[in-house]
Amino acid sequence: MTMSNLPPLVTVFGGSGFVGRHVVRALAKRGYRIRVAVRRPDLAGFLRPLGYVGQIQLVQANLRYRGSVDQAVAGADHVINCVGILFESGKNSFDAVQEFGAKAVAEAARATGAKLTHISAIGADTKSESSYARSKGRAEEAILQTLPDAVILRPSIVFGQEDNFFNKFADMARTMPFLPLIGGGHTKFQPVFVEDVAEAVARSVDGKVEGGKIYELGGPEVLTFKQCLEEMLRVTYRKRSFISIPFGVASLMGSIASMVPLIAPPLTADQVTLLKTDNVVSTEAIKEGRTLEGLGIKGTLLSSILPSYLVRFRIHGQYTNAGKAA
């Protein structure tokens, strides 16, 4: 194969993360050459078997260091930014990673003439009370100012084998007699399957997604926080009580948890702030077709996937008797 007819080169920032690894798999199946840009390439070797020999290249890059971003983007036809953090720690602040970092990726893509797909989040808003949501909103503005034809995808809560939501609460249910319902558990989510998000990203690389727009990705069901936990308990065959924790109390608990060094806090005050607002696809996005369905992707039901990876949280795994809840 000559250089002139090589498959397009796609750089994926954060390709070893939860969503990123599924994006890499979706692109590999399509035959793209993939450059995965991560902070620790030595820990991302598990991605190589997702493609044929030599198809997936691992390079070092950190969004806080512009030089490494430029090197990772050099020669790419399309750039995908999957990088995001759930809480701040040390130099990894929301502004540094999710705003400055996203802008750096957009500027590097513009310099090399590459297309850009950016993964944001439903709730991104420059005026939000949440630092996380504000940084996401500012990143979107900076990206569209830099690359007006960029594709921005805002997923709701993403579920899948490596998710940090259902796995977290299923693990808590193994040892705790009750589960917390922040703000009463009334916040609404629209859980979207990680492979559906990855398919949306891959279609943008295929050129099948119109640029310059913000798409909101939600699954076929709208569930409250409490209903999500109830579904998790049903799948893991466990019975647990719920305790409602007011937003004010939860925020205080999150602030205290964030002060403990060297561990990932189970909850932060900023996450509590996020829970005060429903995380669902907007009416405007539905009307304008800026959704999964609008992209021609049929959303996957939570109930069809959850048992495939939460089975490990049952008392005896796949051999647990469904009639005996623990």
What's the short version?
The chain has 326 residues and is of the alpha/beta class. It has helices spanning 18-29, 66-73, 94-112, 131-146, 166-175, 194-206, 225-236, 247-258, 269-274, 283-287, 302-310; strands at residues 9-13, 33-38, 56-60, 78-81, 115-119, 151-155, 158-159, 178-182, 188-189, 192-193, 213-217, 223-224, 241-245.
Order of helices and strands: EHEEHEHEHEEHEEEHEEHEHHHH
Number of strands: 13
Number of helices: 11
CATH homologous superfamily assignment of the domain at 3-158 and 191-218 and 280-299: NAD(P)-binding Rossmann-like Domain
Q: Helicity level, as a percent range? A: 25-40%
Strand order of the largest sheet: 3-2-1-4-5-6-11
CATH architecture of the domain at 3-158 and 191-218 and 280-299: 3-Layer(aba) Sandwich
CATH top level class name of the domain at 3-158 and 191-218 and 280-299:
Alpha Beta
The proportion of residues in beta strands is 15-25%
Radius of gyration: 20 Å
Helix and strand layout, with pairings?
Elements lengths: L8 E5 L4 H12 L3 E6 L17 E5 L5 H8 L4 E4 L12 H19 L2 E5 L11 H16 L4 E5 L2 E2 L6 H10 L2 E5 L5 E2 L2 E2 H13 L6 E5 L5 E2 H12 L4 E5 L1 H12 L10 H6 L8 H5 L14 H9 L16
Helix pairs in contact: 1-6, 2-3, 3-4, 5-7, 7-11
Q: If you had to describe this structure to a student in words, what would you say it looks like?
A:
With about 325 residues, this protein is of the alpha/beta class. It has a domain at about 5-160 and about 190-220 and about 280-300: Rossmann fold (3-Layer(aba) Sandwich), CATH 3.40.50. It has eleven helices and 13 strands. The strands form four sheets. It has a seven-stranded parallel β-sheet, sandwiched between helices. Strand 4, helix 3 (about 95-110) and strand 5 form a beta-alpha-beta unit. Helix 5 (about 165-175) crosses helix 7 (about 225-235) and helix 7 crosses helix 11 (about 300-310). It starts with 8 loop residues before the first strand and ends in a 16-residue tail after the last helix. The model has no long low-confidence stretch (mean pLDDT about 95).
